[in-house]
Amino acid sequence: xxxxxxxxxxxxxxxxxxxxxxxxxxxxxxxxxxxxxxxxxxxxxxxxxxxxxxxxxxxxxxxxxxxxxxxxxxxxxxxxxxxxx
Length: 85
What we know:
With 85 residues, the protein is mainly alpha-helical. It has helices spanning 3-31, 33-36, 46-77; strands at 40-41, 44-45.
């Protein structure tokens, strides 16, 4: 298998993991919103807080995590865009 194919395999695996996390925080958390309302956080029902704030925070964390992991994969296979001076 060539270096380019190995790079794509790792990138594809990272993409599927990222999409699974996005699906979880974008849909699964909201599916159980009714049962989450029995608890509260900062005076608001937990489902409301997770919809309004929690999922947005999770998306930003996933974004930075993905960028760092992809950069590591690129460096591993010699496709890094960063140049050391």
